[in-house]
Amino acid sequence: MNTLPPGRATRLALPLLALGLLAGCAMTDPYQRPGVWRPMGSNEMNFELQVARASDLVKGRGTDEIDSESAVAAIERMRKDKMKPLPTASASGGAGGAPSATPGG
Length: 105
Description:
Layout: H1 6-22, H2 42-50, H3 68-79, H4 89-92
């Protein structure tokens, strides 16, 4: 009669038990359970609804205006390590951002 030592039998049984338990994970996965919402192309549909022209999804469109002077100036400032500081929230003129430091403002 060919029997395994007790320690070896346990080492073989644990991975098989774990494999059996993992097989039931489909029932706990929220996207696999019956009766729950499934993401069936909702991201693509939202993206398509937000595009100005449907043809842009197939092929992008360029611009006729190119401001190469400002691009070259920015690269030169970067190379010379003389970059401009970012504008502050009050200088940008935008409505969002950091709250005002003055009361009521």
